[in-house]
Amino acid sequence: MADAAEPTVISGPQELRAAVLAARGRGRRVGFVPTMGALHAGHVSLVERAAADCDDVAVSIFVNPTQFGPHEDFTRYPRTPESDLALLTGGRVRWVFAPHADDIYPPGWCTRITVDGPARGLEGELRPGHFSGVATVVCRLFMAVPADAAYFGAKDWQQTLVVRRMVRDLGLPIEVVVCPTVREPDGLAMSSRNAYLAPGDRQRATAMWESLEVAARAWDAGQASSAIERLMRGHLESRGVVVEYAAVVDAESLDAVRPGAEARALVAGRLGATRLIDNRPLPPRQAGGG
User: Fold this and answer.
1) Mean pLDDT over residues 92-116, rounded?
2) Predicted confidence band at 1 (pLDDT cuts at 50, 70, 90)?
3) What CATH fold (topology level) applies to the domain 192-282?
4) Which CATH number is 8-179 given?
5) pLDDT in tens, 239-250
6) Which residues are catalytic?
7) pTM value?
8) Per-position DSSP letters for 226-287, written without gaps between them
């Protein structure tokens, strides 16, 4: 790991690229944690994993405008740069990449990555253009931070599949490491958007995780995917969640579950003005259901 207690904050992509390449040239393994800031314990867990795997760690803080739809929460997305930097101080992080919008999207920029495959359906259907924005910014970040490995949280499961597929399709020389979701004591997945929840909505938000536990029990009992989806939706609605989807799908393709393949239960819903997503793995079984 880096020797300095405080990370070096860099906004210029070329400057950071040169520093990372120099470190790798000296035989140091570099890990990268891309974030949109408003850091919490889930982000810290990614940093800790990167620090355990690598000699040096870079963390980016950039609220990416291209992955927000016209009526989404880009302008009010939490921005906490001072507390973010404090959280990253202590020797685990060598560089903090804090670019300006023009550093990522130069004036007149006109190149965007189009994604398909795992980007179809679920989030891709509900948020048109979202995954194109994600793929574009992640590719740009990978150019600025040419690390050995990048670390993502499993809470955004579909996003991890899109990033992995982009890396594979474009032949990008970086390993994508997906780490377990970090949860509050009551099961709610940690998310920067949890700060939006009103107290009553925060109590009901545990329904997200509870619905996934319902799915796991029904899955173990051999119920069909369609029946499990109805159970998930029913539990969420009973707790006042406006359900956007409740799905049981193949964990890698997000298509119908294949016998003998790992599945994934995924949910998305709204509590007040706050949109939350969550998911959990379901083990392979021979009768996947449909």
Assistant:
1) 96
2) very low
3) Pantoate--beta-alanine Ligase; Chain: A,domain 2 (3.30.1300)
4) 3.40.50.620
5) 999 999 999 999
6) 43
7) 0.95
8) HHHHHHHHHHHHHTT-EEEEEEEEETTT-SSPPTTS-EEEEEEEEETTEEEEEEEEE---S-
